[in-house]
Amino acid sequence: MRLLFFALSTAGYGETVIGTSLAQQLRPLGVQSHFVISAISEPVLRRSGIPHTRIDQEMGPLARLIVDDLVRTYRPDAIVLADYFTFTGVFQNRYRLQPWFIEEYGLPVLPIDIWEWEKTSFAIDMFDEDRHVDKRILEMPAHLRPVPLAHPEIEGRAYPFRLWEGTERVSRRTRQHLFTTFGLGPRDRLVMLPVANWQQLPEDRYDSSIGTHVLRGVPRLLAHYLAQLPETTHFLLIGQAPPEFGELPAERTHVLPPCSPARFSTLLGSCDVVLSLNIGATTLARAITSDIPGIALTNSFAVPGTDAVEQVAERLGGLTDFVREWLTGMVPLHRLRMWPLGFHDFLEPILTANPYTDAFPDIELLDEPAVVQGIERALYDAETRDRYAAARAAYLTLLDTQVDTRAAFTEAASRAGLTL
């Protein structure tokens, strides 16, 4: 069987990693794959060894000619969208093409369904408005859901597959070498702060005034929290870090330029904790499935004006002076599960009764003592670390017993009229 994957994200390669992971897991079934990608994903495909074709935004509608030729020469049996949400927007917004031209090829379309779309209203709460998404996925006979973030059980036409097969953990020798390179000693701890390109787009990219100020304000708040951690705590930033992170202790902050996927995996596997402002981040999921501690920070409070600050204080049992002053100057503040966009209500169905959320703590962003103490205990307190390790182990055991990528794909393909 030949699969043609579309992985066209232009501001990060998390979706591409999900797609290549699926393709690699299907190789033992004799499944061949070819990817259509944007430039940002080329390092991922080069590392994977999977053939690929790149299309660029400058091509505009002419990109269709490249795809037409590829379908004619590669002769795929099916198309896989990595992922559905990205695909629906990229061709229209970047290439001025109606995305469903692919149906003219007469091939089954298997969407990778990261967000469990059937459970949503097809509206994403982004900043202060809802963004509506094409419902075409409801017409497709089978959906492929990566775990995590998705639920691990088969649900109707939705089939779960493992996001990542293997581990990012590195050897003690590799970790020691990296620590020595950074000037860290054996008692030091390293916190990774992953920030994707799409989280640092220029402020004018965000139409909402809420988006522009939260883009700058949340990193300033987080830097204040992190600066309170013990002096043996170091911070790892990769890529274009928010300038507000410049307030972190310079001697304990390690900023690296964007690196290859292999180098990133080594860095991830050497960390003591991954701290994410995006509960749906692929990096957080890779950490948990590799038995690396992770922490998510979310904001459950909509704060439309200064009069709502006291309501937040009451629900949290108080606010520190710093957070109170910060929040007063930050209103209106929207609810956040994926900084800076929001996605709070949209992610509720996929997170509800999901065992993935038991594998790491999810801490309220505005609760300064909870954030600082939570990170510190995850780094230094043996009892806390053991408890988190047991939760990760339980989740990984569940995945091992419930999620079979190759069996799930075989069933999904059959439902779409394909035979392996």
Automatic annotation (TrEMBL):
Pfam families to which the protein is assigned, alphabetical: DUF6365
Q: Which InterPro entries match?
A: DUF6365
Cross-referenced SUPFAM superfamilies: UDP-Glycosyltransferase/glycogen phosphorylase
The protein's name is: DUF6365 family protein
Q: Which organism is it from?
A: Streptomyces cellulosae
Q: Species lineage, top-down?
A: Bacteria, Bacillati, Actinomycetota, Actinomycetes, Kitasatosporales
